[in-house]
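Side project, low priority. Logging it here so it doesn't get lost.
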Amino acid sequence: MEFTLEEMRTHLAALEARISNACKIAGRSRESVKLVWVSKFHPAEAVENAISLGATDFGENRVQEAELKFSAPRMALDGSRVRCHVIGPVQSNKLKKAAIVADCIHSIASIEAVEKLEKVCAALPGENGSGKILDILFQVNAGEEETKSGLDVHEAEAFLNEIESKGAAAYPHLRFRGLMTIGKNTGVAEDSRECFAFLRNLQQKFLANGGLFANFDQLSMGMTGDLEVAIEEGSTMIRVGTALFGERDYSKPVNDPV
């Protein structure tokens, strides 16, 4: 069942306490970790409630659902524009729509998707009239689970090297921000530490290269069950849904397979 505004406020306070404590233990500032509210299958009214509580970033798995909620600009309490993150895998025929509605796509895992996004963004209106600049993260299946999407851990470095070899001039409308992964689905947070550490090491290696990866400083990893381990291992974005919004109503799904 969806949480009321007051229930959301209470659960947000509990979550913030966990995040702040994890940051303290890791010797990091609270500001170094962005909370992405995963609003998939939650109605627009829930998004409005979240914004009233200070939410600035929302994650959606399905492109059509992202369009319904975030095509029209929404303003956060701090006066900034609310940011939409597409966090689920996106089929090739949905990349244009994803690029239009999203501020950041977390789930890129192929050269073909990168090339298509560059072409799409070049043709979109931008602030200076020269196309849209889109933030993207590359998804890595760091837990090596068959049910998860993303780059194979044994191929991820070669993939990033291939992107880098093309040079910054090849992707003027894409800003490569970092990596994303989903922790192991074992119910034990500690089981994800190794894959989170792998992701951090890979991200740090390419960030140090500069150039095309000069902005490669983001790690999207950690959800409700494993956020402490993720923060200890360097996560800069954690993705939390049910713990903030309540249970999703799957009886009314958006009929739009991504």
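Brief comment: The mean pLDDT is 94.
Revisit when time allows.
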